[in-house]
Write a structure and sequence with these properties.
The chain is an alpha/beta fold. Helix content is about 45%, strand content about 15%.
Length: about 260
């Protein structure tokens, strides 16, 4: 679990992990980046209270480097990526590992089930789970089980991550997508199953949401330049809509 500035949600997210209905042993590695709040203190308190929790430093604060540090510290052959503001259902690990075994996949995952608490978050959650907001991506809107390009979070065979060379620490955003691309390029299977639904809390206000999506757009350009064969019309919808609005406004001003 890469964490940074997660004071509000960290304890709840960790509790959901430690309460998993899973018959095997598991551990939780918290890779803690530089935070403006009490995230690091809370992480160490959680580790002191349960010996299944380990804390490792992530000085860069990047998710990709956090994941590499956590994987290095981890002991098991299955690696589960978890967000510090995600709420796992009780059977998440059990269903995910069963699906790995049944499908032979390198990585399995499910739906980012966005749910809001405030009216603003509820509106954002509606957009995040609607084809009108994010397109028809299965990891946002659901769908049938089967092979996909990428999944939300992800439960990996450790050997698949290591064979692909780990997370690319040059990636600030889309690090999971980029890793899954390399896994698929080497013959690995990425599998979506709607049984895995993780509650996700959207950003709390417009400023944070705008910053998040500006970053997404900036790094989508990086991904498109690195892997031009992966560009599809959905990625171009936002710039095309913006250009059309500007053109319409200019035409209206010109009369």
């Amino acid at each position: 679990m890469p964490v940074r500035n997660e004071e509000e949600h960290l304890a709840d997210s960790v509790a959901r992990v430690l309460g998993q209905d899973y018959p095997g042993g598991f551990e939780l590695v918290l890779a803690v980046g530089p935070s403006r709040d009490r995230t690091e203190q809370i992480a160490h308190e959680l580790a002191a209270a349960d010996d299944r929790v380990t804390v490792v430093p992530n000085p860069s604060g990047k998710i990709s480097s956090a994941m590499n540090a956590a994987i290095k510290a981890a002991r098991h052959g299955v690696i589960t990526r978890i967000d510090g503001h995600a709420m796992l259902p009780d059977e998440y690990l059990r269903v995910a590992v069963r699906t790995l075994l049944e499908t032979g996949a390198a990585d399995v995952g499910g739906v980012m089930a966005a749910e809001g608490i405030t009216p603003f978050q509820c509106a954002v959650a509606w957009a995040m789970t609607s084809p009108a907001g994010v397109g028809a991506a299965a990891n946002h809107t659901g769908g049938e089980a089967g092979p996909v390009d990428t999944v939300y979070l992800g439960v990996y065979r450790r050997e698949a991550i290591e064979r692909a060379g780990g997370y690319d620490e040059n990636m600030i955003v889309a690090e999971d997508w980029e890793l899954n691309y390399r896994i698929r390029a080497s013959g690995g299977l990425i599998w979506f199953t709607p049984e895995l639904r993780v509650t996700y809390r959207p950003r709390a206000n417009l400023r944070e949401l705008a910053r998040q999506h500006f970053c997404y757009g900036r790094w989508r350009r990086v991904v498109a330049r690195r892997y031009p064969e992966t560009v599809n019309p959905r990625y171009l919808a936002a710039p095309v809509a913006t250009a059309a609005n500007l053109a319409g406004s200019a035409a209206g001003i010109a009369g």
